[in-house]
Amino acid sequence: MKVIKKILQMQKVADEARCAGRKVGFVPTMGYLHKGHLSLIRQARQLSELVVVSIFVNPTQFGPHEDYQNYPRDLSRDAKLLRQVGCDILFLPSVEEMYPQGYCSYVDVENLTQLLCGASRPSHFRGVATVVTKLFNIVKPHLAVFGQKDAQQAFVIRRMVTDLNQDLEIVVAPTIREPDGLAMSSRNEYLTPQERADALVLYQALKWAHEQIVEGQRNIEYLVQGMTKMIQNKKTAQIDYISFVDTEKLHSLKRLEGEVLIALAVKFGRARLIDNLLIKV
Amino acid sequence: MKVIKKILQMQKVADEARCAGRKVGFVPTMGYLHKGHLSLIRQARQLSELVVVSIFVNPTQFGPHEDYQNYPRDLSRDAKLLRQVGCDILFLPSVEEMYPQGYCSYVDVENLTQLLCGASRPSHFRGVATVVTKLFNIVKPHLAVFGQKDAQQAFVIRRMVTDLNQDLEIVVAPTIREPDGLAMSSRNEYLTPQERADALVLYQALKWAHEQIVEGQRNIEYLVQGMTKMIQNKKTAQIDYISFVDTEKLHSLKRLEGEVLIALAVKFGRARLIDNLLIKV
Q1: Does A94 touch chain B (CB under 8 A)?
Q2: Do residue B134 and residue A164 have CB atoms under 8 angstroms apart?
């Protein structure tokens, strides 16, 4: 595995690969890799000939009181995992390389970024859209793989790629879970044993709602109330949102029909966790 | 000359040219070409092997009460001129092709777009940065040529290209003027004979300020007042701004030193005209 830290070198290597007819697959990450990331990289490995993974803890997607400084980092473990899973190039830029003095350009995806996580993290998706645009311009991939766990992020990126004519395919890979159902996340690291046990309720609540719908329940208010009760039952849980939204504009649904995203964000101590289910009604 | 109307076809042709080792030069325009545009295209012709010119009157860079509907258009004359000057590909997308339903992604270059023309045209540069980003992603050029006449636009594009790691070179070509000094612009078309005569004062005022500086004048207030008097002397002129700014942040200067951009915008009837001089003090 080759490690590239400089933008110009990465662009040069990408150009060479493209012109040699090699399909470039890309997985952008913030590091502290878990099985969720590894499944994205395996997917990129299957779909492409040159696999590039970036590790960059992007400051502009963290709010002023969020966990940028404390976000977990372990580069040597990450590098080992990347080698095991068949990554060809690790792109590892510094903050100064990515945001030089005088930096002032941003990408906004307006309609999809005000709701759900955008409501409590107002500049988060602007930071994500901007850094992903930069990374696409640097890595020049034919395809990039994102996780379904960050459902809203995947929608925002898809919309941005379409709107700005970024010439690549976005692949969304399924959420990977711990054996007991908790969605994999680097932020699970923050959980105390009690919070870790309580956090199981997220997937349980999603599954309960899904089962109810399969059994014919169509009352969204009833489902949200049921999920709220289940989650509030856990002492360490603080609900940010529980939403049933359409999969085009991510607007709250009045009726359960078609493709439905059930999404939630809940705080457990220092960890703000998200999870979701994408279902067909 | 080949005419391409579809984004996917343009991207394919661009990829093929790049991988065949042909340098792609690009000149984005809104059509109604004049000698200023043609000089940009000649410059692209000299610097590259495949010259792409786009004609697209971009609705998102016009304000609600501006001249989008009435912006002059003459495609058959434009096509003839493009052939004469050695354009290889005319990229000619429709508004629907560029802004499909649900479009909601925009590029903002924050620090450079609030002042000068940005003050009276608040969403103009957002529209410009967005459409130029799209066109760069579609045409995939090695270099793009912009005119010094639109000085602020050139600064904004340069900053955006650096910030977002768009992998191309920006070339800025000198302003082309009518024999009597008026800067070439598609909007000169709007001028009545009286306004056309009055509009000469723009370049005269710029030259007067430059001469004063060469002779040792360093008082910006004195220079602005002198230029204001010259322009206000013309009945049909309505000044938007006259500014002396630095060439990094486009901020108003307190002292005349280093690289200085003297920029102005003045309305003559329906036509809002801009002009500038870039000087070293």
Answers
A1: no
A2: yes
Partners of B28 in beta bridges: B54
Mean pLDDT of B241-259: 95
In which band, very low, low, confident or very high, does the pLDDT at B18 lie, cut at 50, 70 and 90? Answer: very high
Q: Which pLDDT value is given to residue A127?
A: 98
Residues with pLDDT less than 50, chain A: none
Residues B5, B96: Cα–Cα separation, whole Å: 11
DSSP, collapsed to helix, strand or coil, labels residue B208 as helix
Complex ipTM tops 0.90 = yes
Query: What number of other Cβ atoms are within 10 A of residue A86's Cβ?
Result: 14
* Residue B209 near residue B229 (C-beta atoms within 8 A): no
- How far, in whole angstroms, is CA A216 from its chain's centroid? 31
Helices B7-19 and B124-139 meet at what angle, rounded to 10?
A: 60
| Residue B214: half-sphere exposure toward Cβ, Cα within 13 Å | 7
* pLDDT tens profile A214-264: 999 999 999 999 999 999 999 999 999 999 999 999 999 999 999 999 999
Residues whose CB falls within 8 Å of the CB of residue B61, separated by 6 or more in sequence, listed in order:
B123, B124, B125, B126, B127, B128, B131
Output the pLDDT for position A159: 97
CA atoms within 13 A on the CB side of B50: 22
Quote the pLDDT of residue A78: 98
So what's the pLDDT on residue B149? 97
Asked whether the beta carbons of A242 and A215 are under 8 A apart, the reply is no
Q: Which of B18, B130, B165 sits opposite A137 (nearest CB)?
A: B165
Nearest to B33 by CA among B88, B87, B98, B96: B87
Question: How far is Cα of residue A50 from the mean position of the Cα atoms in its chain?
Answer: 22
Domain B186-280 = CATH 3.30.360.10: no
Contact (CB, 8 A) for A209 and A278: no
Q: Which two tokens stand for residue B190?
A: 């709007």
Q: Rounded to an integer, what distance in angstroms lies between the CA atom of residue B68 and that of residue B179?
A: 28
- Closest residue of chain B to A18, computed from CA coordinates: B19
Q: What is the mean pLDDT of residues B119-132?
A: 96
Q: State residue B35's pLDDT score.
A: 96
The class that CATH gives domain A2-173 is alpha beta
Helix (H, G, I), strand (E, B) or coil at B143: strand
Is some CB atom of chain B closer than 8 A to the CB atom of A114?
Answer: no
Whether residues B137 and A166 touch (CB distance < 8 A) is answered with yes
For B6, which residue in chain A has the nearest alpha carbon? A165
- Work out the pLDDT band at B145, boundaries 50, 70, 90: very high
The answer to whether A104 contacts chain B (CB < 8 Å) is: yes
Q: Regarding beta strands B271-280 and B259-268, do their DSSP bridges make them parallel or antiparallel, or are they unpaired?
A: antiparallel
Beta-strand runs (E) in chain A: 2-4, 24-29, 50-55, 89-91, 105-109, 143-147, 169-173, 237-246, 259-268, 271-280
B105 vs A7, A105, A160: nearest CB: A160
- Domain assignments of chain B as residue spans, ordered by start: 2-173, 186-280
Q: How confident is the model at residue B272 (pLDDT cuts 50, 70, 90)?
A: very high
What is the reported pLDDT for B255? 94
Question: What pLDDT, on a 0 to 100 scale, did the predictor assign at position A189?
Answer: 94
